[in-house]
């Protein structure tokens, strides 16, 4: 459900009018997408090698096809995104704006090596130590790093899918019974009911892959007992709901595209439904996937 930048900007403008409370966040988000789009065609990553039989066996056993370490990052283009986002500081929400100012000063003083943190984007200990030494909020630094490498990660996933689908008998990677991503093994961050009869899809929080999953199941713990799975709607709006699991006390937000007049971009829908994260948290439920947007 990828959208061109032009279409995305139109949708952002529409949300600005409909939900003015999110205007500042939407301006910041738009700036990030523009920065990512500028380097999109310049990303240079080596192809991920695919061994057909091994991949087929992994899929059959319910094992993710790739390890996160298999993903390559183009550090130079990621660095450009990192630097561009720092220039958006004035548009960032207050808490993040303050930390971005600290990070920018650390970069100017050569206390923070951008290429080093981007190269170690999977090493939480390294990033946490870096944040601690520079007296920077770790979630803010992690957000900047993740957002900067995001284009490379998605480019890896897209290239992998193109190659995998060229096999004579391609792996049915878009339909997967597990709650974790079939490509990288990460948890989903958003869910969607499609216009194709309400089939349920989820979006990977790491590589951006979308796959079809069972309608009645918690993607995080596998609970399929309807008595302990429930949901609530957003202010009576059936286009948005929060699915709750009483077993693991975690939740996922769901967009019902059948109730919308447009094709949703889940990452954007995530941003303009932060009030649902607050409501779910107040009920004692946790979001298993971290988000800098969530207070």
Span between termini: 27 Å
Strand order of the largest sheet: 3-2-1-6-5-4
**Poorly predicted runs:** none
Taking Cα atoms only, what radius of gyration do you get, to the nearest Å?
19 Å
How many β-strands, per DSSP? 6
Proportion of residues in β-strands: 5-15%
Output the helix-strand order.
HHHHHHHHEEEEEEHH
Helix content: 40-55%
Give me the secondary-structure category. alpha+beta
Largest beta sheet, briefly? 6 strands, mixed
Number of helices: 10
Shape: globular
- Looking at how many chains there are and whether they match, the oligomeric state comes to single chain
Mean pLDDT: 92
Describe the structure concisely for a colleague:
The protein has ten helices and six strands; from the N terminus they run ααααααααββββββαα. It has 295 residues and is an alpha+beta fold.
Q: What are the key terms here?
A:
single chain; 295 residues; alpha+beta; 6-stranded mixed beta sheet; 10 helices; 6 strands
